[in-house]
Amino acid sequence: MLGSKRVLLGITGGIAAYKTTFLTRLLIKAGAEVRIVMTDSAGQFVSPLTLATLSKNPVLKDFVREEEGETDWNNHVELGLWADLMLVAPATANTLSKMASGTCDNLLLACYMSAKCPVFFAPAMDLDMYRHPATKTAIETLEGFGNILIPAASGELASGLEGEGRMAEPEDILAAITTWFARQQPWTGKNVLITAGPTYEPIDPVRFIGNHSSGRMGFELAEAAAALGARVVLVTGPTHLQPRDPGITCIRVGTAQQMLEEASAHFDQADIVIGAAAVSDYRPRVAAPEKIKKGEDTRSLELVRNPDIIQTLAARKSGQFVVGFALETENELEHAQSKLKRKGLDAIVLNSLKDPGAGFGGDTNKITFIDKNSQIKPFALKSKAEAARDILHEIQIRIGN
Ligand code: PMT
Q1: CB 87 within 8 A of CB 122
Q2: Under CATH, domain 6-184 is a member of which superfamily?
Q3: Domain ranges of the chain
Q4: What homologous superfamily does CATH list for 191-287+302-399?
Q5: Do 191-287+302-399 and 6-184 fall under one CATH topology?
Q6: N or C: which end of the chain has fewer CB within 10 A?
Q7: Ligand 1 centre and the CA of 233: distance in Å?
Q8: Atom of ligand 1 at shortest distance to CA of 239?
Q9: Could you identify the atom of ligand 1 that is nearest to the CA of residue 256?
Q10: Element (H or E) spanning 196, and its range?
Q11: Ligand 1 atom 20 nearest Cα
Q12: pTM for this structure?
């Protein structure tokens, strides 16, 4: 239900903290990867050891930790960026008020302030505290920030009072999160085909013609499409990367010819096709069956043209939205636009090796999205994950629903 979503669970100090052991188990059973950050007082209600065992990750409380005599830093910015969602449960009146005012005096609050992902919060407190105008104002403020309230339920409270203030049950919290994510998935039912990575064209059993593509751009596109709810087939050349989302079908190939065969086999079912692979335009006419021995001072290699995969697929279009990439080093816009036309694409994503941080390897890219109506949208240098989301957003605008 949660795919391989990365959940940062923030636990604050209330009796409902004991329920987070069940909540952690439910999140993990739903497929999430869970990391936990708790306040000092939460640690008095529930054991960090129990939660670390259930989540299979150390529980973090402090900005620094001592390990085997070494002092280490729990990086809140890294944790905030790591998470696909942050859930503060239980959220006490104290923590709600601090979140709303931007107070940042513990690791949990620093993670909250650093999180770029959706933040859910499940209040838990006594009836009168829940009703207090200060609490109501804090909740409204947080909702105004775009945080998502999982309302407290009514029932018997730890104080013995009856009324609103009980933290929602773990099953209800999980349901609120999964329902929210399902609504955020406009590509549910869509099939997306992506090519990634380099191709290796063998010269002999030990050598090949290849390039510097790491596959990262294509893999991030696959993750982003899966996060939108699509069924994703990723045909990748040689790379050490693994898809994080277990729902992604990853087909590994070596040569351009093999990439074409696999992509062709999945083309008819696809609604959206994205060619992020750096395909070798040529291959040796013959791959020697045995290792070529050293000999003359010079040697020539006869090369023949490889099929153009994205162009071959685009020629068979029956409703698919087909997007290529253009990796350029000069006259970038002009070359990209002419590739878009020549290959019969609906859009092309330009990245230039002249832009620092763009193109091969690395975690970042600087892209320009160009469609067949010559609409040109440049983007700033971003992580490849963010660039992937930008590309899918541009596609979404053009395909509608
Ligand atoms: O993998 P990374 O390290 O993250 O790097 C990402 C990237 C730089 C490889 C990626 O962003 C990118 O630009 N991919 C396309 C690289 C490329 O080969 O560009 P091109 O301009 O040569 O090709 C244009 C388009 O035709 C591309 O969609 C390419 O996949 C496709 N093509 C090219 C040749 C061929 N024989 N078949 C193809 O399908």
Answers
A1: yes
A2: Flavin prenyltransferase-like (3.40.50.1950)
A3: 6-184, 191-287+302-399
A4: CoaB-like (3.40.50.10300)
A5: yes
A6: C
A7: 17
A8: 1
A9: 36
A10: strand 191-196
A11: 326
A12: 0.69
